[in-house]
Predict the 3D structure of the following.
Amino acid sequence: MREEFNEVFQAIGWSDFAEIPEGGIILLTKEFLMTLRTDTRRDGMYIWFRLFNTDYELTLRQFSNLLDFSPQCTLGEDLAGFNSAEFWKELVGPNAPKKKSIAHIRHPTLRFLAR
């Protein structure tokens, strides 16, 4: 599973971020990734996550600033045409059930991260 986590981190550009030797950072990363939610439906784009047993709600701009991304980065343009139903079908395969459940996700690491 460690290799699969490395593969996922590599895909999202966090390969250097994940190479921190302290054991606690792994638990914090899992807590963050397992609680990460976004909302693009209301005015503005918001992100929710949990760290150190504290819930956070930020705009994507605030989150981007916390991660020290360049202020010139545009947020949300790629998500404007995002279709969650099509994404779900991609995750679970051609026989996608009507009711969404993480048990239907085929890739074990993605299924674990979704918990």
Q: What stands out?
A: Residues 83-115 form one domain. The two ends are 15 Å apart (CA to CA). Strands lie at 37-39, 46-51, 54-59.
